[in-house]
Amino acid sequence: MTISVAITGATGRMGGLIRRIIDETEGLELHAALSSGSDLDELRGADALIDVTNYDASVRAVDAALEHGLDVVVGTSGWDAARLAELEARIPAGRGVLVVPNFSVGSVVATRLAEIAGRFFDSIEILEAHHEAKVDSPSGTAVRTAERIAAARGAALAPPNAQQPARGQTVEGIPVHSLRLRGVVADQQVVLGGTGESLNIRHETYSQDAYVEGIRLALRAVTGLEGLEVGLDGLLGLDELLPPAGARA
In whole angstroms, what is the distance from residue 222 CA to residue 81 CA? Predict the structure, then answer.
């Protein structure tokens, strides 16, 4: 079976990578490559949409895709827990939406490790860096990591001292520091402090090639999903190998 894929955000960095992956992958074919000026009716007839735009454009694209009967992979930042809950309520029966904060396998594993480790430390901060052209901050990966740590603990952490505004944006009580630098692709560190020790869980991305396997996996899997799924964890088998914190092994 060949999966016909439409791309929104096709003229951007990730959009170009996705077009290459579709061209090189058996069982995938390009239906339409949409830019910011394209008519979303061009989605009609595709099997799936992969969206790599910005949050506002993503909402419009996802809603249009679901209306036209497509399954959807979302690779756009900005879909926090509250927005995901709203999205889940809008998904029609029989359709699947896979929201992927990061397509890198290493990043997915690092977030799961941070989720597990976060139960044992009360002092946690996240540092994330991306290329200078990335417009949003903090990154979707950093937000997802903070949310996963808080969920594993059963509550948000105590917020940092309000008299220290330089400590970044707080997500679930965890300060997140964002850097946007020329020459960087992506880098995230979760730093956990304890009495007499610290633990640093770091993942670095050196090129966009790190996203290829995750994108290919998401596109092949999404037409078999129903409802909302967040992250590649389940598709990679991490739920069995490293059960989510609080779950029974």
Answer: 20
SS3 149: helix
Q: Helices marked H in 12-54 — which ranges? A: 13-24
Torsion on CA atoms 169, 207, 210, 224, rounded to nearest 10: 80
Instruction: Give me the active site residues, please.
Output: 130, 134
Apex 239 CA angle, 237 and 210, nearest 5: 50
What single DSSP character describes residue 181?
A: -
Long-range Cβ pairs for the range 23-26 (8 Å, 24+): 25/216, 25/219
Which superfamily does CATH assign the domain made up of 105-206 to? Answer: Dihydrodipicolinate Reductase; domain 2 (3.30.360.10)
- Look-up: residue for tokens 């989510």? 244
- Can you list the alpha helix ranges (DSSP code H) found in the chain? 13-24, 55-67, 81-90, 105-117, 140-153, 212-221, 233-236, 238-241
Nearest one of 237, 233, 249 to 112, comparing CA atoms: 233
pLDDT of res. 136: 86
Q: Reduced to 3 states, what is the DSSP secondary structure of residue 185?
A: coil
State the pLDDT confidence band at 73, using cuts at 50, 70 and 90: very high
pLDDT at res. 100: 96
CATH number of 3-103+209-241: 3.40.50.720
Residues with Cβ within 8 Å of 140's Cβ and at least 6 positions away in sequence, in order, are 76, 77, 78, 79, 101, 102
Sequence spans of domains, the chain: 3-103+209-241, 105-206
Q: What is the largest CA-CA distance in the chain?
A: 59
